[in-house]
Amino acid sequence: MLNNINKRTQAELSMLVVAFVWGTTFVMTKNALDDIGPFLFLGIRFIIAFIVLALLSCKNMLQINPAVLRSGGIIGLFLLLGYAFQTVGLKYTSSSNAGFITGLSVVLVPIIYSIINRRLLGLSIIITVVFAATGLYLMSVQPGTFHLGRGDLLVLFCALGFALHIIAVDRYSHRHNPVAITGVQILLVGVVCLFIGLLFEPIPRSFPPSVISAILVTAVFATTMAFLLQNAMQKYSTPTRFAVILTMEPVFAGMAGYLWGGDILTLRIVLGMALILAAMLLSILGKKG
């Protein structure tokens, strides 16, 4: 019994570390985009992440077959949408806003499930949507106007991409080796983004230390190690507990943006962040089971 509790504690602490890494890398990525195009950045990041994952889990990579490629390709397309909109959006919004708006993917999942299953939204989902929409408005819409900033709108599409990714993972991933199907997703994002970047973005004459460190940290820690930790530790806890812990990601993003990214957190923005965080927690804790 004690051993199980210790394993659960270790698992949940490991996911808190993952949330910290994901949250703080928003600032690193935003700073790196001053010197490299978003698609080149993503392409190099995910190609490196795939290579590291293959080296660490080569036996799992050998389980990639046509069925894994099909399922992983479908899931990977939504992952591609999420990261592409997020990274391009980061050029035009603050890392704090990007972190919290990305977290709206948690809120969008039950809404999309309701649409797919043709069910009316329950009261808890409606309350969650009101909280999320109000928080988004306070954070992203300037007083006296009624439209989202360009960067925030792009990151909102990113949240939709990640929500669809969560649904696709739930539908397809359990049929296959989790590391193998993750490898397919990562490789797809890397290849497509690298192709787009080489075709449409200027190739940097040099790579400043800020770009190199951002690529390596996001590739090794925020991608490969994060996915491996999730795959290895999920069995020691529950999806709901993990999801609650991962709501700390936008909190860490906001703290990092304020401390290291020069983000200005007005009372209006902080209130919006609090409402989005509350919406995320309500969405998770309102699930049955």
Describe the protein's architecture and organization:
By secondary structure, the chain is mainly α. It has one domain (2-285). It has helices at residues 2-32, 38-56, 58-61, 66-90, 95-102, 105-116, 123-140, 150-172, 178-200, 209-233, 239-246, 248-259, 267-285. Helix 5 runs parallel beside helix 8 (150-172) and helix 9 (178-200) packs antiparallel against helix 10. The longest helix has 31 residues, at 2-32. It is globular. The mean pLDDT is 88.
Our measurement of the CA-to-CA distance between the termini, rounded to an integer number of angstroms, reads 22 Å
Strand portion: under 5%
Would you report the number of β strands? 0
Low-confidence stretches are none
Q: What is the average per-residue confidence, as pLDDT, rounded to a whole number?
A: 88
Total helices: the number is 13
Helix content: over 70%
Order of helices and strands: HHHHHHHHHHHHH
Main structural class: mainly alpha
What is the CA-atom radius of gyration, in angstroms?
A: 19 Å
Overall body shape: globular
What are the defining features of this structure?
single chain; 289 residues; mainly alpha; 13 helices; globular
Topology of helices and strands:
Layout: H1 2-32, H2 38-56, H3 58-61, H4 66-90, H5 95-102, H6 105-116, H7 123-140, H8 150-172, H9 178-200, H10 209-233, H11 239-246, H12 248-259, H13 267-285
Helix pairs in contact: 1-5, 1-10, 1-11, 1-12, 2-9, 2-10, 4-8, 4-9, 5-8, 5-12, 6-7, 6-8, 7-13, 9-10
